[in-house]
Amino acid sequence: MGRLVLRFDSEWSVLGVSIERGHFHGHGVAYFPTNDVSEFLALLQAYPIQRSELALKSPGLINISVFPADGVGHLFVRIEVAEDIDDRDFARVRLRTDYARLSRFANQLSLMAKGEITEIILEEDKA
After folding, report:
1. 3 state DSSP class of 16
2. Which residues lie across from 68 on neighbouring strands?
3. Which of 37, 63, 73, 124 is positioned for an S-S bond with 95, CB 3.0–4.6 A?
4. Does residue 48 have a cis peptide bond before it, meaning omega lies within 30 degrees of 0?
5. Pick from 1, 100, 102, 3: nearest CA to 43
6. What CA–CA distance (Å, rounded) separates 97 from 26?
7. How far apart are CA 23 and CA 74, in angstroms?
8. Which phi and psi angles does 120 have, rounded to 5°?
């Protein structure tokens, strides 16, 4: 089972991303203006999510994208992280989720962008 942990410092607009899948772990930290988070949130609320450029990115450090996994409501959240902008190596994890989990994630991300919470955890759907 995999999971994504986001930590956001709204005072400095710094997003920390940790990913796990089994014994595999990756981590990245990057500057993220809150307006970028807001734009990503607006796209997350679309239904159905189309295979398009739905991503929260920091060039070279963090890339979180969401896209359909199948035609019955399952989604994939793909997370890529690197520790340094010059790294050629990065960690990539793909988590399977659904619209209910994605909706909770989007609501929590909205609170995080406002500075009301500091951490979000998205765990992979076990099905």
Report:
1. strand
2. 75
3. 124
4. yes
5. 102
6. 19
7. 24
8. -130, 140
Q: What is the pLDDT of residue 120?
A: 94
88 half-sphere exposure, CB direction, 13 A CA radius: 0
pTM for the complete prediction?
Answer: 0.85
pLDDT tens by residue, 36-80: 677 778 788 878 887 655 677 776 688 888 988 888 889 999 988
Q: Which three-class secondary structure string do you get for 85-111?
A: CCCCCCEEEEEEEEHHHHHHHHHHHHH
What b/e readout covers 51-61, taking b as 16+ CB neighbours within 10 angstroms?
A: eeebebbbebb
Average pLDDT for 17-22: 90
What's the token pair of residue 13?
């607009």
In three-state form (DSSP H/G/I as H, E/B as E, the rest C), the secondary structure along 33-81 is CHHHHHHHHHHHCCCCCCCCCCEEEECCCEEEEEEECCCCCEEEEEEEE
Tokens of 127: 């099905």
Compare 55 and 104 and report the one with higher pLDDT: 104
Give the dihedral of Cα atoms 61, 33, 117, 120; nearest 10 deg: -30
